[in-house]
Design brief:
With about 150 residues, this protein is an alpha+beta fold. The chain has helices spanning about 5-30, 60-70, 130-140; strands spanning about 40-50, 55-60, 75-90, 90-100, 105-115, 120-130.
């Protein structure tokens, strides 16, 4: 395989991986987040901080499809979504994103690390920066100042 062919394959894989991840955010912006479900691999793994209702490690697309996608707009306002960055390297995509906290003026920054294989999302690992407003929305006590 020539060097150009390898680079083109990698560029194609990056573009496909970014397109799958972007489909998630666009589905949320369009108020149809559950329509992202067909992009989930059956063994999709969700990893989020344990202090959240959807936190921990969950294996299987059913959890994300049935527990996260329908309920996430109750806490994250996709209407105020924006990218800080969307980067891909082969099948790995990192989205540094901003969301409004539903029902408030607050914003939250989230780093979401995705893996995509053959056009299907296989995992997401999520980290929240300054999550106080989100925790308050969820009714979770914390000792963090705002």
């Amino acid at each position: 395989m020539s060097r150009n062919t390898v680079e083109e394959d990698d560029q194609s894989k990056r573009a496909q991986s970014k397109a799958v991840v972007d489909a998630y955010y666009q589905a949320g912006v369009q108020r149809r987040l559950t329509s992202f479900a067909p992009y989930l691999h059956s063994d999709f793994t969700t990893t989020a901080p344990n202090y959240l209702p959807w936190g921990g490690v969950h294996v299987g697309a059913g959890f994300f499809r049935d527990q996260v996608l329908p309920d996430l707009p109750d806490v994250l306002d996709f209407g105020r979504f924006s990218y800080d960055s969307l980067l891909a390297e082969s099948d790995r995509v990192v989205a540094l994103v901003n969301f409004g906290v539903t029902g408030s003026d607050a914003m939250i920054k989230i780093s979401e690390h995705w893996t995509v294989k053959d056009g299907k999302a296989t995992s997401i690992w999520v980290a929240y920066f300054e999550p106080q407003a989100l925790l308050e929305k969820l009714g979770i006590a914390h000792g963090l100042s705002r």
